[in-house]
Every structure is written in structure tokens, then in C-alpha cells.
Amino acid sequence: MNPYILAILLFGLGLGTTITFASSHWLLAWMGLEMNTLAIIPLMAQHHHPRAVEATTKYFLTQAAAAATLLFASITNAWLTGQWEIQQITHPLPTTMITLALALKIGLAPLHAWLPEVLQGLDLTTGLILSTWQKLAPFALILQIQPSNSTTLIILGLASTLIGGWGGLNQTQLRKILAYSSIAHLGWMILVLQFSPSITLLTLLTYLIMTSSTFLVFKLNKSTNINTLATSWAKAPALTALTPLILLSLGGLPPLTGFMPKWLILQELTKQGLAPTATLAALSALLSLYFYLRLSYAMTLTISPNSLLGTAPWRLPSTQLTYPLATSTALTICLLPLTPAISALLTP
Amino acid sequence: MVYVMFMFLFGLVLGLAAVASNPSPYFAALGLVAVAGMGCGVLVGHGGSFLSLVLFLIYLGGMLVVFAYSAALAAEPYPEGWGSWPVLGVMVAYLVGVCVAAGLFWGGWYEGAWVSADEFAEFSVFRGDVGGVALMYSAGGGVLVLGAWVLLLTLFVVLELTRGLGRGALRAV
């Protein structure tokens, strides 16, 4: 892509999120979200093959519908209460509409159907931007609204963890697996939103780090399905050894970082007297864990059938920057002992 | 004046029925032109002259023109208008429905200025629409710049998406 156009689009992406972060007026927040959607559309369709264009179209339609619902809800609130302030929405109708609009924006179940197909049509870099950066602006809004209906949020959360787990079980394409993993993690984030928004923020940040690691690993290995992953062990043996730890961190196993949000969420839910909800969420994490284990098994724990040439590929210096992968992998594996410091940092 | 407003409203509903009766895009665009034009007339009659002007310029002169070009790209050999029975039948059905609804809700009188105004005795009047434009350029300057930037971004996005014609993203065109 023309570097000037790329610079303008990336600038628009950054500006959109910044505007939504900095806004206290619903109209400005909506503008930031629309700017994000607009700027990423050419990035998604840059390899002009029909699959990418299809993914771009689906993304545009869902995000535009969500943004229109958001605008409609904020105008309804302005009509009913005269209030445009983001943190001052108290009427239940606009609050519920905004919650559902933002759920469609990030891909929470039952508004999740677009995410696997959209992510599958993109290359891994654009998929990474979609899964990480594009979640920041909607979450900035989700963290600020006062939730009205407790049941809606818990249903959104549990449905997302269950659908994220069950949906990912039958997948062989890595991008779809990561899409369902995203849905499940978003479910965990929404579960605890009404009790402790700082834990939601902590879950979001750890999820961003863990999923960045995973996307970058797959990008380095140039693998997009399980078969290719299984034969990529000889390309970067150190990475092959570390990837199970990254995947199990995504699955939420101690002593890795991914355990931190799940632990805090289960503790908070239990303190609020929602022990059955906590149990159901913990059991749904088992479903996700199964497909993370399957990926580790295919990549590292077994050597898949391959020709003799596949065991000794040329290990040339990678053209891809490895510094981000190194940083995010270190954070994905070793951050658990810092739990008290991190939760203290994120509590206002 | 009442008669003029009546004619405008009559044309509005007729145009709406013409659009909703599912003709070819050519005739639907013509119906939309009629609807927008009549609607502008109604708006002027209620005091919203500035908004009517903006509607004419931007909606009819900008968006509808683009839609007409897009409809021309999807040209049909035998376009269906009021001349064909399916379209005429649906149109008559809609008009009958309008008459029924009018019969149910008949009565009452609406009179009021459309635009809000703030007055200070004999000294000043602040109209809601043109006063808003003045505010947009003064206190709302930042958001205006932001809006202009977003429009520029949209231009680049569309140009990037359509780059390459038949080899690019739009291959069916």
C-alpha cells in the first residue's frame, strides 16, 4: 500500500481511539468509533482478494449498525433526560441499547457471529489490530456506563464464555480459534463489569498482551491452520518450546499470567454471592483450554508426520521484528507474581 | 398558503408511495427526488428555510446524485415503473392504506414554527438553525476541524478501496 495512505490510515486509527478515550460527550465518543471503523476498512481489504473484501464488508456492516445503535441510544437519552454526558446515563432504555451496541462492536455472544468469519478473511497482522486495538475504544465506553440490568450483563458474559469455548472446539483454522478465544475472554470481562470495572480493565490488558503474543507467534511461523503449525516446530525451536506456555496462559492456567484475571474474577463473583455463576464460568474455561491444549499438542508435544526436509529448514534471520514478540511473551508468562501491584495500579 | 402546503403534502405522500411500490431504481430515485423536493417545501412553509436549503443542496444535490450514478451502473434492460401491473398494484394498495389511515386519524390542527428561537424583547433574535451554524464555526471549531478530517479520511478510504478498478476490490463492476 502507498506509504502515505498507510500513514494516514494508521493516524486515523490512533486518533479515533484517542478521541473516544478523551471524550465525555456521547457524540464525540461515537465519532471516535466511526473513525476507527473507517480507517481500518482499507487495511482489511488491502489484499484485494474476494475473501478479504467479504470480511471487510461484513465488518463494516456490523460496526456501522452498532455505531448507529449507539448514536440512536445517546440521542434517545438526550431526548429523555437532556443529558449528553457519558457517565451520567441513568435511564434504563438507553443504557441497555448502548450495552447491546457495544456488545455488537466487540463481538460478545449472542452478537458474535461476525467475528470468526471476519478474522478468517484477514492476514495475521490486520487480525492482530482488529483483536487488540479495536477493542480499546469500545471498552473505554463500556467501563464508564452505569449498568442498569444486572441479568443482561451476566447472560452476555456466560453466553460468551460458553459459545467461545464450544465454538472453538471444532476449528482447524487458527484465526477462527483466536476469534472464539476472543469471544470467551470478552465474556469473562463482561461478567465482572458491574462488580469491579478495574478487574475488567485488568482482564482486557492481560488479554491484549496474551493474544498479541499468539498472533505474533503464528505470524513468525507463517502458519494459519493446525497442520501448518504442526510442521513449523523446526523453524524456531525456542519459540516452539515457549508457545505452549503462551497458549496455556490464554487458557488461564497458573502460574502463568492468564490465571490472574480468572482468579480475581472468580474471587469477586464469589464475594458477591454468585458462586453458581462463578462455577459455570470456571467450567466453561475448560472448553477453551481443550483447544489451546490441542494447539500445544500439535505444535510442541508431538512431531507431526513430515518429510525429512521438514526437520531441518533454513533458519534465516527473521524479516519480522521480533522485539514485540519477545516482550509480550515475557509478559504473558511471568506476570502473575505482580498481581497485587497491577490490581492496585488499575484501581482508581 | 394552506393550499400550497396541501399540494406539497399530497406530492410527498404520492412520492413515498411511488418509492415504496418497488419500481426499478431509476423510478425510485425519481420518487425520492419528488419526496425530498416536496418535503423541502413543507419545511419552508413551517419556517425552516435554512434547513430546507441545506437539504436540497446536500441530500438532493450530493447524495441522490451519487445514488443515481450507482443506479445507472446497475442498469436494467426493461425498467419497471407505473406502467407495469405489479408496481401499479402495490402503489394503489399503499394509497388505499393511506386513505384508511387518514380516515382513522382525521381531525386536529397543527400550527407551529418548526425552528426554535430565543428572543430578547426588541433587541435580538437567535434562531435555532442559523445560530447553530454560527456556533459551529466559533465555539465548536474543534469538532468542525475533526469533522473535516473525517471527511478527508473517508475520501482516502474510498479511493484506496476502489483503486485498481477491475483488478482491485470491486471486481463485479
From TrEMBL, chain A:
Compartments it resides in: Mitochondrion inner membrane
Q: What class of enzyme is it?
A: translocase
What InterPro entries would the database entry show? Complex_I_Subunit_2 (IPR050175), NADH_DH_su2_C (IPR010933), NADH_UbQ_OxRdtase_chain2 (IPR003917), ND/Mrp_TM (IPR001750)
Decide whether keyword Phosphoprotein is in the record. Answer: no
Q: How does it sit in the membrane?
A: Multi-pass membrane protein
Q: List residues of the NADH:quinone oxidoreductase/Mrp antiporter transmembrane domain.
A: 23-286
Q: Which UniProt keywords apply?
A: Electron transport, Membrane, Mitochondrion, Mitochondrion inner membrane, NAD, Respiratory chain, Translocase, Transmembrane, Transmembrane helix, Transport, Ubiquinone
Q: Which residues cross the membrane?
A: 60-80, 92-115, 151-170, 177-195, 201-221, 233-253, 273-293
GO BP, one annotated term:
mitochondrial electron transport, NADH to ubiquinone
Main location group: mitochondrion
- The EC code for this enzyme is 7.1.1.2
Q: Please name the GO terms that the record assigns under molecular function.
A: NADH dehydrogenase (ubiquinone) activity
Instruction: Enumerate the catalysed reactions.
Output: a ubiquinone + NADH + 5 H(+)(in) = a ubiquinol + NAD(+) + 4 H(+)(out)
Q: So what does this one do?
A: Core subunit of the mitochondrial membrane respiratory chain NADH dehydrogenase (Complex I) which catalyzes electron transfer from NADH through the respiratory chain, using ubiquinone as an electron acceptor. Essential for the catalytic activity and assembly of complex I.
The text of the family note is: Belongs to the complex I subunit 2 family.
Full protein name: NADH-ubiquinone oxidoreductase chain 2
**Species whose genome carries this gene:** Oreochromis niloticus (Nile tilapia)
UniProtKB/TrEMBL annotation, chain B:
Q: Which reaction does it catalyse?
A: a ubiquinone + NADH + 5 H(+)(in) = a ubiquinol + NAD(+) + 4 H(+)(out)
Q: Name one Pfam family in it.
A: Oxidored_q3
A GO molecular function assigned to this protein is: NADH dehydrogenase (ubiquinone) activity
InterPro entries in the cross-refs: ComplexI_Subunit6, NADH_UbQ/plastoQ_OxRdtase_su6
Q: Does the keyword Translocase apply?
A: yes
- Subcellular localization, per the record? Mitochondrion membrane
- Record-level GO cellular component terms: mitochondrial membrane
**Coiled-coil segments, which residues?**
none
Q: What class of enzyme is it?
A: translocase
Spell out where the chain crosses the membrane: 53-75, 87-110, 130-159
Stated EC number for the protein is: 7.1.1.2
Membrane topology according to the record: Multi-pass membrane protein
Q: Which UniProt keywords apply?
A: Electron transport, Membrane, Mitochondrion, NAD, Respiratory chain, Signal, Translocase, Transmembrane, Transmembrane helix, Transport, Ubiquinone
Q: Reply yes or no: does the keyword Mitochondrion apply.
A: yes
Q: Give start-end of the signal peptide.
A: 1-15
Primary location group: mitochondrion
Name the protein family.
Belongs to the complex I subunit 6 family.
Q: What does this protein do?
A: Core subunit of the mitochondrial membrane respiratory chain NADH dehydrogenase (Complex I) which catalyzes electron transfer from NADH through the respiratory chain, using ubiquinone as an electron acceptor. Essential for the catalytic activity and assembly of complex I.
Q: What is this protein called?
A: NADH-ubiquinone oxidoreductase chain 6
Which lineage is the organism of this entry classified under, starting from the top rank?
Eukaryota, Metazoa, Chordata, Craniata, Vertebrata
Please name the gene that encodes this protein.
NADH dehydrogenase subunit 6
